[in-house]
Specification:
The complex is a heterodimer of chains A (600) and B (372). Chain A is of the alpha+beta class and 600 residues long. Chain A is built from 13 helices and 33 strands. The longest helix of chain A has 18 residues. Chain B folds into 2 domains: 251 residues, TIM Barrel; 63 residues, no CATH class. Helices cover 40% and strands 24% of the residues of chain B. In chain B, the strands form 4 sheets. Chain B has a 9-stranded mixed sheet with strand order 9-10-8-7-6-5-4-1-11, with helices on both faces. In chain B, helix 2 links the parallel strand 4 and strand 5. In chain B, helix 1 crosses helix 10. At the A-B interface, helix 12 of A face helix 8, helix 11 and helix 14 of B.
C-alpha cells in the first residue's frame, strides 16, 4: 500500500480558535473513509478529554487518509492537526514545517482574526500552498462573499480560489480535497539521501515509552535503524515505525514525504524535542533542519497543595505530566505563606490553566496557584545578571543595577469602531505603538510593542470586553527591555504574604497597591477577627484596608429534626473552606492570589 | 440499642402557614386530621413494639398547630402514648396557638395528660403580628397565657420572635416585658430567620423586605438576655430561658444527645446503637403520603443515615455547645477546643466547655469545628 511520492500530500488545517478547524478535519476523515461514520466520536483528533471539553487542540495529531480523486488516482493525504492557541505557536510552526500545504479556515461571520493572520504568515514563511476555505456558510449571520473579498485583499489569495464550506453540514468537503491534490505540491525529498525527519510532536505512552511524531523529509526511516537526534545528540534504536490511520499502524519504513511515528525506547519527551531532526547514526545528514528552538517557558507561577500532605502526590503528578509535556518545567519552591510547592514554568496562560486542571482532575489534587509572572532579568551592582521568576525573590533594591523584562509584539485585529479603546488599553499597559493598518471589511490591524507582564495581567479579557468581544490577539516574544520596576509586597494581618508579592512599574506602584488592597478586602472572607490588609513598597506602607471580623453566625433553632440539616450545612461550608489556604491565622481563597491579575 | 425515653409527635396542620415558616406544616387540610390521628396512633403502636422504648420521661407534641386537634382526638393520641408507660413526673408538652387556648381546651388537654403548654405568642406588636401573618392579636396572646395558668397549667412557655422588620429595640422589650408580667415559667426567643424556601425568603431576595442588620439583631438578643436574667430566668440554651426547674426536659434530652423516637409526618428519630454509632431516620413529609403508608405498613419511613461513632461524637459536640451551662460533649476534641478557647469563643470550666458571649454570636463556627 505504498503510495508513489507524486501522489503524496502533507497538509495542515490552520484557523483562528472556534472557526471550525476540528470539525472540518472530522469531515475530511469521514469523507475519505478513514474513520467510519459510526466510529466517529465528534472531534476524533482531539484526544484528551480536556481538549474535547474545551473544544481546543493542545497536542498536534496526525492521520493518513487515502483519497480517490476525480483524476482517477488514489492520493495519500497526511493531515496534521495543529494546536490552536498562541501559547503553542512554536509547536504550530514545527507542524507547519512538516507540511507542504495548509487549509486556511476562516469563519464566514467572524472573518479574519489575529490568529488567522499569524497562522497565514507562518504558513507563508514555510512556503506552504494555502487553500482558503470560508466555513460556516450555513449560519444565518454569515457573509461568505465579504469574507472572500477580505481574504483576497488582506492575505492576497485570489478570491476565485476560495472554497465555501460548512464543515458541520459537510458542504465543500470534496472541493477541498480536490484542491489539496491539485494545488499542494508533492514532496521533493530523495528516499536515498541521508535521513532527515522532522519531529513535530511527541507523546508519552505508558507501555511503549515516547511515541515521536515525524515527517521524513529526506531519506528513509526503517525499523531497527540506529537513529540520532541532531540537537540533543542522543541515539536510539528504532523498535517500530508506523503511520496513523488514525490508530497507530506499524509499517516497515517511512520514506521521504511520509508522515508517521517512531518508537525507540525513549523514556522522556525531553529526548524527543519538537523541532529536532532525526537522522541515521550510520549515515548522518550534513546538517539538522532549520528552525529548531529550545522551548522556554514564558509564564511562571507557584503551585501549592492546599493540603500540605499532598506535596509528594503533587511531585509525582508533575513528574508524570512532564513525561508528556516537554514545555512544562518545575522546581521545588517553599513559601512562608503557602508551604512547600513547585515553581512551574509554562508556555502561556492557557498552558498554565491546562496543567493545573489536569493535575487536579487526573491526579485528584486540590491546588492553589499563585498569580502568574514573567521571568525578569536583574543586573546586580556586582555585574552579575540573574533571572527572577518569582517576585518574592527580587534582590534588595540596594543591590539592583537594572531590571529588564520580556517584551512582545502584540497584533490586535479589531473593527475600526474599537480602535480608540484598543489604543487606550494598550497605552495604559505600557504599550509602545508600532503600526496600524486599515483593511477591507472594516478591520484594523494594530501592533504594539509591550511588556509580556502586561499581557498576562488580564489584557486579553480587557481587550475582549472593551471591543464587545470582537478583538483578537496574537503576540510573539521580541526580547528584553529595561524598565523601572519595583516590588509591591502585601501584608495580611501584619505578616507579609510572599505569594502575593508582585513586580510593578514604579510610576503605577502606589495606585496598584491601593487597588490590590481594596480587591483583597472583597476577596478575603470575614474571619473570627479583624484582618488588616496592607500594601507596601520597600517597607513603606502605601495602602491599608480592613476586613471586619465576622459579626454573627448563629442558628436560632436547633431541635431534633433540624440537626441533620444543620450538620450537613456546616459540613458543606467546611468542605468549601478546604479550598482556602490558611496563612497564619487567616484563611485566604484562591481568587485572592489571582487578584493581582485584574486590578483595573 | 440504647433505651428511648423521649417521644416527639408531629401534627403538621395549620389554619394558615405564616410566610416565614419552613416547618413541615400545611394549611387547610383539616379534613385529613381524623385519618391522620388514626395513622399516627398506629405508627406509635408499631414503633413501640419494635424499639426499646419507655417509660417515657418526655413527650412533645409539636407542629404545625397540634392545638387544632379536638379534645377527643388528643385523648385518642395520648391514650396510645400512655400505653407505652410514663415515668414518674414525665413532662408532656403541647404546642398551641394563642387562639386555641380556651378554657374548654385547657381542661381537655390537662385531662388528657398534657402538663406543659408552649404558646406561640411571637409578638404583641400589631404591626409585627401583621407582618408575620399571625392570626391572633396581642391581647389574645396575653389572655391565652392567663387562661392556661388559670385553668391549671403550672408550666407555661411562650415563643417570641425578635429581629422582626419594623420592630425597634424598645418595642421588642415592651413585648418581652408584657409576657414576663404574665408569669410564664419558660421563654423561647428566636431571631426571625429568613429561610430560602419561604415567602419571606422570596420577599427578602427580591428586595421587598429588608431585614435588620446583624448589629440590631444582636442588640435585641442581648437586651432580652439581660432582662430575662434580671427577672430570674436562666439562659440555658442559645434561644431558651427558664425559671429554676422549668428548662424543657424534652429538648434538653436531644441537646444532650439522648435518643428519641419521632412519630408523624416528617418527624425525625435518633437512635443510638451499642457500638456508639448514631442512626437518624425520618418519615415521609406529606400528610397524605404519611397517612397512606403509616396506616398500611405501620410506619412511614422515608430515609435514614448512620453516623460512625466518630462522626456521632462530632455531632454531639456541635449540638452540645448550644447549652450555655456548658457541655462535656467536646471532650474528645482537645485541638479544636484549644483553638476555640484561643479565639475567645469558648471557655473551659471543670473539664466542660461553654460558649463565651462572642461564642454565642458565632455558635455555628464553634459547632462546625467539631465536624469532619
Amino acid at each position: 500500500m505504498s503510495t508513489p511520492t507524486h501522489l503524496t500530500r502533507a497538509i495542515s488545517v490552520i484557523a483562528h480558535v472556534d472557526h471550525g478547524k476540528t470539525t472540518l478535519s472530522d469531515r475530511l476523515l469521514e469523507y475519505t473513509g478513514t474513520v467510519a461514520p459510526r466510529d466517529m466520536v465528534e472531534q476524533v483528533l482531539d484526544q484528551l478529554d480536556l481538549e474535547r471539553e474545551r473544544g481546543i487542540t493542545i497536542k498536534a495529531q496526525a492521520v493518513r487518509m487515502l483519497y480517490k480523486a476525480d483524476d482517477g488516482n488514489t492520493y495519500q493525504i497526511n493531515l496534521i492537526d495543529t494546536p490552536g492557541h498562541v501559547d503553542f505557536s512554536y509547536e504550530v510552526s514545527r507542524a507547519l514545517a512538516a507540511c507542504d500545504g495548509a487549509i486556511l479556515v476562516v469563519d464566514a461571520s467572524q472573518g479574519i482574526e489575529a490568529q488567522t493572520l499569524a497562522n497565514v504568515h507562518q504558513a507563508l514563511d514555510h512556503n506552504l500552498k494555502i487553500i482558503p476555505v470560508v466555513n460556516k456558510i450555513d449560519l444565518p449571520q454569515s457573509n461568505p462573499e465579504l469574507v472572500r473579498e477580505e481574504i483576497e485583499k488582506v492575505i492576497g489569495l485570489p478570491a476565485e480560489s476560495v472554497i465555501f464550506a460548512s464543515a458541520r453540514q459537510g458542504i465543500g468537503t470534496k472541493e477541498i480535497l480536490e484542491a489539496v491534490v491539485r494545488e499542494v505540491p508533492p514532496p521533493t525529498g530523495d528516499s536515498n539521501a541521508p535521513l532527515q525527519a522532522l519531529i513535530f510532536d511527541a507523546k508519552f505512552d505508558a507501555y511503549r515509552g515516547v511515541v515521536t511524531y515525524i515527517r521524513v523529509l529526506e531519506g528513509t526511516l526503517r525499523r531497527g535503524m540506529r537513529i540520532q537526534m541532531m540537537q540533543t545528540g542522543k541515539s536510539f534504536e528504532v523498535d517500530e515505525v508506523g503511520i496513523f490511520r488514525p490508530e497507530r499502524e506499524p509499517v516497515d519504513d517511512l520514506s521521504a514525504g511520509e508522515v508517521g511515528y517512531l518508537i525507540a525506547n525513549i523514556r522522556n519527551v525531553r529526548d524527543s524535542r519538537v523541532g529536532d531532526t532525526v537522522t541515521d547514526e550510520a549515515r548522518p545528514a550534513a546538517a539538522p533542519l532549520p528552525g529548531y528552538r529550545h522551548v522556554t517557558p514564558m509564564v511562571f507561577a507557584g503551585l501549592f497543595p492546599t493540603d500540605t500532605e499532598q506535596y509528594e502526590q503533587l511531585k509525582e503528578a508533575l513528574e508524570k505530566l512532564q513525561l508528556n509535556d516537554a514545555a512544562l518545567v518545575y522546581e521545588p519552591e517553599s513559601s512562608a505563606a503557602l508551604g512547600f510547592g513547585f515553581r512551574c514554568g509554562f508556555l502561556g496562560l492557557l498552558h498554565m490553566e491546562i496543567v493545573q486542571e489536569r493535575l487536579e482532575r487526573e491526579f485528584n489534587l486540590t491546588l492553589l496557584g499563585t498569580a502568574p509572572t514573567v521571568e525578569y532579568r536583574v543586573r546586580l551592582r556586582s555585574g552579575e545578571e540573574i533571572p527572577v521568576d518569582n517576585p518574592d525573590h527580587l534582590p534588595d533594591p540596594g543591590q539592583i543595577e537594572a531590571i529588564s523584562e520580556p517584551m512582545v509584539l502584540a497584533t490586535i485585529v479589531v473593527p475600526s469602531t474599537y480602535v480608540g479603546n484598543m489604543m487606550e488599553l494598550s497605552q495604559e499597559r505600557r504599550g509602545q505603538f508600532v503600526n496600524m493598518q486599515y483593511e477591507p471589511g472594516d478591520r484594523v490591524v494594530i501592533t504594539y510593542r509591550m511588556p509580556l507582564a502586561e499581557i498576562i495581567h488580564d489584557y486579553y479579557d480587557q481587550l475582549k470586553s472593551r471591543s464587545k468581544g470582537y478583538a483578537s490577539l496574537n503576540y510573539e516574544l521580541v526580547g528584553f527591555e529595561e524598565a523601572n520596576l519595583v516590588k509591591l509586597d502585601v501584608l495580611v494581618a501584619g505578616s507579609p504574604v510572599d505569594a502575593l508579592s508582585m513586580i510593578v512599574d514604579r510610576s503605577k506602584a502606589q495606585a496598584q497597591g491601593r487597588r490590590l488592597a481594596e480587591k483583597l478586602k472583597t476577596l478575603i472572607p470575614r474571619q473570627l477577627f479583624e484582618v488588616p490588609i496592607q500594601a507596601a513598597i520597600g517597607g513603606k506602607i502605601v495602602a491599608r484596608e480592613t476586613v471586619p471580623a465576622m459579626r454573627k453566625d448563629v442558628t436560632a433553632k436547633c431541635y431534633g429534626g433540624d440537626v441533620t440539616r444543620k450538620r450537613k450545612l456546616l459540613e458543606k461550608q467546611k468542605e468549601g473552606k478546604k479550598r482556602l489556604k490558611r496563612v497564619g491565622n487567616v484563611e485566604i481563597p484562591q481568587e485572592a492570589f489571582m487578584a493581582v491579575l485584574s486590578l483595573d | 440499642m440504647e433505651r428511648i425515653h423521649s417521644l416527639y409527635v408531629h401534627v403538621p396542620f395549620c389554619t394558615w402557614v405564616c410566610k416565614y415558616c419552613d416547618f413541615n406544616a400545611y394549611a387547610v387540610l383539616e379534613g385529613l386530621i381524623p385519618p391522620y390521628v388514626d395513622a399516627l396512633s398506629r405508627e406509635i403502636e408499631v414503633a413501640a413494639g419494635e424499639h426499646p422504648i419507655g417509660p417515657l420521661e418526655t413527650v412533645f407534641i409539636g407542629g404545625g398547630t397540634p392545638s387544632l386537634l379536638t379534645s377527643a382526638q388528643l385523648r385518642q393520641l395520648m391514650d396510645r402514648i400512655g400505653a407505652i408507660g410514663f415515668g414518674p413526673g414525665a413532662e408532656v408538652t403541647l404546642e398551641s396557638n394563642p387562639s386555641n387556648v380556651t378554657a374548654e381546651h385547657v381542661e381537655g388537654w390537662l385531662t388528657a395528660g398534657v402538663n406543659r403548654l408552649s404558646i406561640g405568642v411571637q409578638s404583641l406588636q400589631p404591626e409585627a403580628l401583621r407582618f408575620l401573618e399571625r392570626l391572633h392579636s396581642g391581647p389574645d396572646a396575653i389572655a391565652a397565657i392567663g387562661t392556661a395558668r388559670a385553668g391549671g397549667f403550672a408550666n407555661v412557655s411562650a415563643d417570641l420572635l425578635f429581629g422582626v422588620p419594623g420592630v425597634n429595640l424598645a418595642a421588642w422589650l415592651d413585648t418581652l416585658e408584657s409576657v414576663l408580667a404574665e408569669g410564664v415559667q419558660h421563654l423561647s426567643a428566636y431571631e426571625l430567620t429568613v429561610e430560602s424556601g419561604t415567602r419571606l425568603g422570596q420577599e427578602v431576595r427580591t428586595g421587598l423586605v429588608q431585614m435588620p442588620g446583624a448589629d440590631d439583631q444582636l442588640e435585641q438578643y442581648w437586651a432580652a438576655a439581660s432582662r430575662l436574667e434580671a427577672a430570674g430566668y436562666a439562659h440555658y440554651e442559645i434561644s431558651n430561658w427558664a425559671r429554676a426547674g422549668f428548662a424543657c426536659r424534652h429538648n434538653l434530652a436531644a441537646w444532650n444527645y439522648q435518643p428519641y423516637l419521632g412519630c408523624g409526618a416528617g418527624a425525625h428519630s435518633m437512635f443510638r446503637l451499642d457500638d456508639g454509632s448514631t442512626q437518624r431516620r425520618w418519615n415521609l413529609k406529606g400528610p397524605q403520603a404519611y397517612i397512606k403508608q403509616a396506616s398500611g405498613l405501620g410506619h412511614a419511613l422515608d430515609g435514614s443515615e448512620a453516623l460512625s461513632p466518630e462522626r456521632a461524637r462530632g455531632e454531639a459536640a456541635m449540638i452540645g455547645v448550644r447549652l450555655l451551662g456548658g457541655t462535656g460533649a467536646a471532650h474528645g476534641f482537645p485541638a479544636q477546643r484549644e483553638r476555640l478557647v484561643g479565639a475567645g469563643l469558648l471557655v473551659e470550666d471543670h473539664g466542660e466547655v461553654r460558649l463565651t458571649r462572642r461564642g454565642v454570636e458565632l455558635a455555628n463556627q464553634v459547632g462546625a469545628a467539631f465536624l469532619a
